[in-house]
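Students often ask what a 'structure token' actually looks like in practice. Rather than answer in the abstract, let us consider F-box domain-containing protein, a protein of 404 residues. Its sequence is given first.
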Amino acid sequence: MTIISDLSWDLVEKILARVPIFSIGAVRSTCKQWNRLSKVRVLCKAEAKRHQFLRFMLKNYKLCSMRFDLHGILQGKQFVDPSIKEITGDSLNHVKVTKVFHCDGLLLCVTKDKEENKTSLVVWNPYLGQTRWIQPKNYYYRLDVYALGYDINKRKHKILRFFADAYNVSLYEIYDICSDSWRVLDITQDWGIMFYHRGVSLKGNTYFFAKEKIVLEAGGPESIAELHAILLSFDFTKERFGPPLPLPVEHYIEDTGTLSSLRDEKLAALYQSSSMCNVEVWVTAKIEPNAVSWVPFLKIDLEPLTGFEFQFHHYGASFFIDEEKKVAVVFQIDESEMTCYDTAYLIGENGYFEKVGLGEADNHLDSIPMEDYCPLVCSCSYVPSLVHINSEFVKEEANEGDHH
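Now compare that with the structural description of the same chain:
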């Protein structure tokens, strides 16, 4: 009888390459050798490549995996509903997740505490199955803004945290996963970032929509003038913000504006004026912490397609794009008289428009601020990562880096 140890490594690698990402736990429990191998190599490469549309979605405060394959629309086929599965068998099962951020194969999740206006923070590596709860110096608050990134020289992952309410930031802190410590950053506030404008990580840095602050009169109180928004990057290597960068359109506070990332190579910006139904999507031709240039990707007038003046929520929409199909998929919550629904809108060239229902939203949404809930989708397709976040592995990797 053939047993696992009798199999050739060539055959083992072919088998393990086809293992679904969320079944890797079964592989680890099969034998010690496979368990050790899975922690130093990404085994499910073929499966990850085949399901290059895998993303993570928040639905009813639960973290879900979502496969959103747009291949059929090129052949004129009717779109097939995405596969959305709640992630089970993990410590995140028993908490309510309100926000999620993705960087380098890691997810930073903000969870809802029982105490009003308090939250918790956890980093998760889906491939390694590791979670790490991050303890604050004092408390986390509902209006805190977070970003996940890394030092490009040492590949050390960090978390940026600041409190942003009506553009007033009182404190900037950074958490180093390797040293398990928070530090206060000395940053002068020359801009404002609203908490509902979620940052997007790209190449280790995070980009935000922001508003420049001005002083209305000498010696008078500072105020936010109605200036158009800028793009602002936080450099996790230098631990500081870069200079203000231009957005492709003049974006104001009531306009819909949100960022997305594409293969950790480009930024995409979606824009809709509060007074128009036109939706524009732009993609970066060049993106660096100190420089950016944009090219148009898509522009569509939604009024002829919806029959009314349709507007995406300025505080809740998230989206991703498919460059090959020239399609943007926008996620938001739709409200009817009695029920709320998570919804995906597919918009593309030549008036392509499709609305896809993703199921009923939580039935107690009327008791929470709308900006605290949306069917948020991480923009990047997930790529498995070998970044260890458990304390014993992190310290070991840090020591190895110091020896080098």
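One point worth highlighting: The chain has two domains: 1-50, 51-403. Ask yourself how you might have guessed this from the sequence alone, and why that guess would often be unreliable.
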